[in-house]
Automatic annotation (TrEMBL):
Domain (ABC transporter): residue spans on this chain: 25-256
UniProt GO MF annotations: ABC-type transporter activity; ATP binding; ATP hydrolysis activity
Species name: Tessaracoccus antarcticus
PANTHER family in UniProt: TEICHOIC ACIDS EXPORT ATP-BINDING PROTEIN TAGH
UniProt name for this protein: ABC transporter ATP-binding protein
């Protein structure tokens, strides 16, 4: 049973989240090198990248929360953490419901298998029964619109085709929480249009969404609230138009001071 907290209406609660990547700087990143260095008492050379530094916010149920920020701000890291792919280095993520994400599904696809087989596996990985996936299969395949390619190994897919299938599987899982990271850039113009329509209908169906995009118009059109990340920190959260305007102003000026004044 959900713990009664002050975040009663939240689908996701993120509390003081830190994520630090540990990057191995060794030229020879091999087990042998690691063991040889260990045996000689030498240190293996690591560098730490603090991708998220104490981020806290909650995602209200049934709303779309947009995430914006410059390259390297930590947006994808945050999405991977909410999807359960990356464990928090420090802090806490509480998820109330079934999460579906393009990231996790894309990662889970086995390119030696056909699209059809991957839909089955992906659906089951997302918590559906075999019968449940079969019931939805036609709709998923129709939406991805890959023609005969659905029965071809996925290694023969273009990256756009890969994304279309991943997107289609993700949005047909009826998740409680849907994570979309730049999904609208998946596929060609026609698919983008259909993807946007599908997302609008998902939002109407009151699903909770986390949406990461550099397309600020899309963010404004779809989000109820926007979070602005910069260098691993949450700078501001609030009304989509105001957040996007503030971010655009920052991009124009290109100066961290504009952020730090309010921070
Ligand atoms: N696998 C990784 N190993 C080490 N460092 C990483 C890894 N992935 C991301 N980083 C670093 O973490 C920081 C945040 O990266 P992240 O991809 O989350 O940013 P982003 O906001 O999604 O950026 P973009 O808009 O460019 O996609 C960056 O400094 C990046 O270099």
């Amino acid at each position: 049973m959900a713990r009664p907290t002050e975040h009663g209406g939240s689908a996701v609660v993120i509390d003081d989240l830190h994520i630090t990547y540990r990057v191995n700087l060794e030229r020879k990143n091999t087990l042998k090198n690691f063991l040889v260095k260990g045996a000689r008492g030498q240190q293996v050379n690591y560098r730490e990248v603090k991708a998220l530094r104490g981020v806290s916010f909650d995602v209200p149920k049934g709303q779309c929360t947009g995430i914006i920020g410059a390259n390297g701000a930590g947006k994808s890291t945050l999405m991977r953490a909410v999807a359960g792919i990356l464990p928090p280095t420090e802090g806490r993520i509480e998820i109330r419901g079934k999460v579906s994400t393009l990231l996790a599904l894309g990662v889970g696809f086995n390119t030696a298998l056909t699209g059809r087989e991957n839909v089955l596996l992906g659906g089951m990985a997302a918590g559906l029964t075999r019968a449940g996936v079969k019931e939805r299969f036609e709709e998923i395949a129709d939406f991805a619109d890959l023609g005969d390619f659905i029965d071809m190994p996925m290694r023969t897919y273009s990256s756009g085709m890969f994304s279309r299938l991943a997107f289609s599987v993700a949005v047909h899982m009826e998740p409680d929480i849907l994570i979309i990271d730049e999904a609208l850039s998946a596929g060609d113009a026609q698919f983008k249009e259909r993807a946007a329509q599908k997302m609008a209908s998902l939002i109407d169906a009151a699903g909770t969404m986390l949406l990461v995009s550099h397309a600020l118009q899309t963010i404004q059109d779809l989000s109820d609230e926007v979070i602005w990340l910069h260098k691993g920190r949450l700078i501001k959260r609030g009304n989509p138009k105001e957040m996007c305007n503030a971010y655009l102003e920052f991009l124009k000026v290109g100066d961290d001071k504009i952020i730090m004044e309010d921070f």
